[in-house]
Design goal:
Number of strands: 14
Strand content: 25-35%
Number of helices: 8
Radius of gyration: 25 Å
Length: 338
């Protein structure tokens, strides 16, 4: 996991002063825009933010900017390419310092041997330098941008699947459109679960004073999910338990939707034996969460009147891994990386 870091102004200033004192005056890099000098382990001027030329920087000294990007921001994901040589403790410790990640987390990360994001960086130039730094340590990675994962283009939700002899007929949700996929054109299916937790807080509203919390209620649910990709499609089709017609299962159909969606996944595997089936998301989502955080959506539901001159303030927070799963799904579709 990411190490705890105090982000107060004093610690930031102290860290910056320590970086400056670590270098000689002739090692500092002058900014072409504001002319002020920054440490040579920076990609940008610490005063005005101007990008430096890569040639001006000692790339071996660069430490990535670990600012947590918002879900909506475009970043560059550094993807660990699995099935490499085993790293020793010293190498893991060096990588731990580079990314400010706990050594125990990285040990589990490398042991699991999956194609997973090890960092999400703000700038491509920074991602390239870190990629080069890791390569010198014998760790191969690939850069996949959030733009390539294309989260702005939603997955097409399905209402129904029909299994025919040599093809699938997919009926889109709330549309009459039907998409046909030939057996040999079904290239990837992914299963997982979507977890949602809603926390509703009711506070006694007191003007000019701190609100007093009256109650906190939490509800949670999880639903199974399937993503389906054909050879010419990068965005995918999605099966959710809610609103899906499971009649294609015939006599195998259960009364429970979560059992039926598992059967749909197995039926897809039997329909196309050569399809790549990814079923490990639930197993590794805790590792993904260190880089691709769970999304939190906050909603102020306003003030409700509770008697004469008395008001309650209601707030709700929804935590969901839907964006995380979609990133994971699109990442699988982009393999093998170029």
């Amino acid at each position: 996991m990411v190490k705890n870091d105090k982000n107060d102004d004093h610690s930031v200033k102290s860290s910056f002063q320590n970086q400056i004192s670590a270098f000689q005056a002739d090692e500092m890099v002058s900014c072409k825009k504001c002319v002020r000098k920054s440490p040579p382990n920076r990609l940008r001027c610490v005063y005005c933010g101007e990008n430096f030329d890569i040639g001006e920087i000692q790339t071996d000294l660069i430490k990535p900017n670990l600012r947590k990007l918002e879900v909506w921001e475009n970043g560059y994901n550094l993807i660990y390419l699995a099935k490499q040589r085993e790293l020793n403790e010293t190498e893991i410790r060096e990588i731990s310092k580079l990314f400010n990640l706990e050594k125990e987390f990285l040990t589990k990360f490398f042991e699991i041997g999956e194609f997973l994001p090890i960092a999400r960086l703000e700038f491509l130039s920074e991602a390239k330098i870190v990629k080069e730094t890791l390569a010198k340590k014998g760790l191969e990675t690939a850069i996949v941008s959030d733009e390539n994962l294309d989260l702005k283009n939603p997955v097409k939700r399905l209402r129904k699947i029909e299994f025919e002899v040599e093809k699938l007929k997919l009926t889109l949700f709330n549309k009459a459109e039907i998409i046909e996929i030939a057996r040999e054109d079904l290239v990837l299916i992914i299963s997982g679960s979507i977890y949602e937790k809603t926390q509703e807080t009711v506070q006694k509203y007191v003007k000019s004073k701190e609100n007093k919390t009256l109650s906190v209620d939490e509800t949670s649910k999880d639903d199974k999910i399937i993503d389906i990709y054909s050879g010419n499609d990068l965005n995918g089709f999605r099966v959710l338990t809610n609103g899906f017609d499971f009649s294609c299962l015939g006599n195998e159909m259960s009364f429970l939707a979560f059992e039926n969606i598992v059967k749909i996944f197995e039926k897809l595997k039997k329909f196309a034996p050569d399809v790549k089936a990814v079923e490990n998301y639930n197993k590794i989502r805790h590792l993904l969460g260190e880089i691709w955080e769970i999304e939190e959506i906050k909603d102020s539901r306003g003030v409700s009147k509770k008697g004469i001159g008395k008001f309650n303030l209601i707030k709700a927070t929804l935590s969901t891994n839907l964006v995380q799963f979609t990133k994971f799904s699109r990442l699988q579709r982009q393999m093998p990386f170029k």
